[in-house]
What does this fold into?
Amino acid sequence: MRFEYAPAPESRSVVTLRDSYGLFIGGEFVAGSSVFKTISPATEEVLAEVTHAGPEDVDRAVAAARQAYERVWSVMPGRERGKYLFRIARLLQERARELAVLETMDNGKPIRESRDVDIPLAAAHFFYHAGWADKLGYAGFGPSPRPLGVVGQVIPWNFPLLMLAWKIAPALACGNTVVLKPAETTPLTALVFAEICQQADLPSGVVNIVTGDGSTGQLLVAHPGIDKVAFTGSTAVGKEIARACAVSGKRLTLELGGKAANVVFDDSPVDQAVEGIVNGIFFNQGHVCCAGSRLLVQESIADELLSALKRRMTTLRLGDPMDKNTDIGAINSRPQLDKIQELTASGEAEGAERWSAPCPLPDRGFWFPPTVFTGVSAAHRIAQEEIFGPVLSVLTFRTPAEAIEKANNTPYGLSAGVWTEKGSLILWMASRLRAGVVWANTFNRFDPAAPFGGYKESGFGREGGRHGLEAYLDVLGGSDV
Ligand code: TAP
It folds into this structure.
């Protein structure tokens, strides 16, 4: 049975957009060298003009962060730093609705996701790390671990505010100051975060936000005044950054791409597994580094599972991301849509079979329907390369050993899922999957207390939990380059 839904739009009026936004340096919004426009990917309307930070702007931001580090933040007792983090966490909650709407406008993701996932998790990261600020001596890194200094942080567009929180909260809790560059296509919630830093009376220069494109990121990571670089983004750019930081004495952590296997055994409850598969690949339009983009299904239930999956996919609602009933929002940018189209065309050219949910696409904006490829072999590009869109590649297996071989057969190792009723099989699989996170009978679950990070070309270093603190402290065994 198909339900008809009345429109349930969230109100844009909770957001007051400025015409233009400066850089946030030394506690103030300041002008920079040039400007660019940020648009809504769902409508292509211009939302605001944003400043592009050039070399002098990055210099100023790093100098402000250094001064704040030396004079204020690194010498402030942890319990005082913690109070600021708690204050920021509460302000994120107070302004949650505004932030969710703005995130959806700038990113294109469904309001249901920004409201229920991105913003609450961002606040949770600040609450969690606020609690650590005065307990670092008990975190297992010696009695008085020291901060590293000024941290340069570069983040992607898929979870703009949440990735900011993953970066800034632990850095500040450990006594570092930061210069952060948000992605070019999604700078707006980072700029509202800068306002929140002002509201929280955070000492000037502890957080600096420099907007811009990849060239601003390059300037930041190569800056000699930076002690540590934390990057989340593509593997290609991550490798470039690793080269730029080599032999510089800078600490480096890289959170890169993924091509996760979601492995379904024949004893799993089919309906529950279908929900997990849908959540694994269609959440946030598949713009998720740990997305379950490869379904590995045991051969004996492949037909049954695929029919159930396709039935479920026909009920997904694609369209206006501001509508509270929308499941699939807009693709974040034209270049990302081009990339998805190119890779899916290669899937067909290499012999895989494409099936897309029959949903009409809006005329304006960037859209791609939820899509499944069957008849995929491990050598196909769509089984090896990260598509970063709502596209699932399906492979089959007969034995657990074959599932492991296929699951591990990519250059990545960020996450994986296992669906079975047998606890012993879950443990057997988890100990053999080369993935930083393994979910069992669920997918895409996040918690600030749980460390997240990759193996192989998915990067190194962990974010979240006690392990994540290590990336921002001067302890033996860090990942110096
Ligand atoms: P990238 O193109 O790598 O961009 C990431 C960030 O780096 C953006 O702010 C980008 O600026 C900047 N940048 C680009 N070139 C740079 C350079 N040469 N030096 C320094 N900074 C540079 O990735 P993306 O397309 O935004 O994000 C998607 C990727 O991120 C996917 O591969 C995804 O798997 C990965 N990701 C990983 C994780 C974790 S936790 N592992 C989480 C989320 C996303 P512009 O915006 O101007 O290009």
About this structure: The two ends are 58 Å apart (CA to CA). Residues 111-132 form the longest helix (22 residues). Confidence is low (pLDDT under 50) at residues 477-481.
